[in-house]
From TrEMBL:
Known function: Methylates the class 1 translation termination release factors RF1/PrfA and RF2/PrfB on the glutamine residue of the universally conserved GGQ motif.
Record-annotated Methyltransferase small domain positions: 94-196
Listed name of the protein: Release factor glutamine methyltransferase
Catalytic activity from the UniProt record: L-glutaminyl-[peptide chain release factor] + S-adenosyl-L-methionine = N(5)-methyl-L-glutaminyl-[peptide chain release factor] + S-adenosyl-L-homocysteine + H(+)
Top-level taxon: Bacteria
Annotated binding of S-adenosyl-L-methionine, by residue: G117, T118, G119, S120, G121, D140, W173, N189
């Protein structure tokens, strides 16, 4: 029997102001338990320190902090990425960008891949995990983000992969890349939310790096810069694919058309929204 001052996971679940799923995630994180242990050990008295730690996370979640930041991780493309307040939290719809990049390099041995604005490294590491032969460069202007991306690459990729370690480059888009580098595939999930968009003041976005979310302008500034600089860094026949906002597909296709890209197209995410657009550089 538990004495009255002993606290159990069952009791914390009953008392939590959070949705049950969120309470379970925080409990599993603090206790180091699997989901089934929440059931089999739910009536077990918990260490006071664990209870205190749980209650601190519960309060922070109730104040709006993202679950991914509280537990320090988010699953993306089947991999468990470290997440900190320095990086955008990987979103499931971004897996479409990874799948599209992988399809574009399907027939190419040792493809060269560039991820612009890599953040947590989710896109670059996911691609590298499926294509061990790919040589992957990942750019970010944020040293904090690059540190997270480098840790994710070290944790999630085989140190002996034939494509070698990822190359991390600090800088803005192409500005600090070796001009001699030409890529088979360029991908990016840049900041594309327009200044003043109410979503910036809602939910998880309030706690994510603002510079990863918005260009503080019309939402297209970064997409323009990426399209503009791409031809100088693509091989003939190379492709560029970018994620963008739900209402930006036509504008991004127009940017690609104007820059001379062929096969310009958009793809819909699982919600049916045109979420990524891309094209192929003439030359093959
Ligand atoms: N997809 C994110 C959101 O709307 C934004 C990510 C981005 O700006 N690249 O929540």
């Amino acid at each position: 029997m538990n004495t009255p001052q002993e606290v159990t996971a069952d009791a914390l679940l009953r008392a939590s102001p959070l949705p049950a799923l969120e309470t379970r995630i925080l409990l599993m994180h603090v206790l180091g338990w699997r989901r089934t242990e929440l059931i089999t050990r739910g009536d077990q008295a918990l260490d006071a320190a664990r209870v205190t730690a749980y209650r601190a996370l519960e309060a922070r979640r109730a104040a709006g902090e993202p679950i991914a930041q509280l537990v320090g991780a988010r699953e993306f493309f089947g991999l468990d990425f470290e997440v900190t307040p320095d990086v955008l939290i990987p979103r499931p719809e971004t897996e479409l960008l990874v799948e599209t990049a992988l399809a574009a390099m399907a027939g190419i041995a040792q493809p060269r891949v560039l991820d612009l604005g890599t953040g947590s490294g989710a896109i670059a590491v996911a691609i590298a995990s499926v294509r061990p032969d790919a040589r992957v460069w990942a750019v970010d202007r944020s040293p904090g983000a690059l540190a997270v991306a480098a840790r994710n690459a070290a944790t999630l990729l085989d140190a002996e992969r034939p494509g070698g370690a990822l190359s991390f480059v600090e800088g803005s888009w192409y500005s600090t890349l070796d001009a001699a580098l030409h890529f088979d595939v360029i991908v990016s999930n840049p900041p594309y939310i327009a200044n003043g968009d109410p979503h910036l003041d809602q939910g998880d976005l309030r706690f994510e790096p603002r510079g990863a979310l918005t260009d503080e302008a019309d939402g297209l500034t970064c997409l323009r810069a990426i399209v503009e600089g791409a031809p100088a860094h693509l091989v003939a026949g190379g492709v560029l694919w970018m994620e963008h906002g739900y209402d930006q597909a036509a504008a991004v296709r127009a940017l690609l058309d104007a820059r001379g890209f062929a096969e310009v197209a958009s793809k819909r995410d699982l919600a049916g929204i045109e979420r990524i657009s891309g094209g192929r550089l003439h030359g093959i």
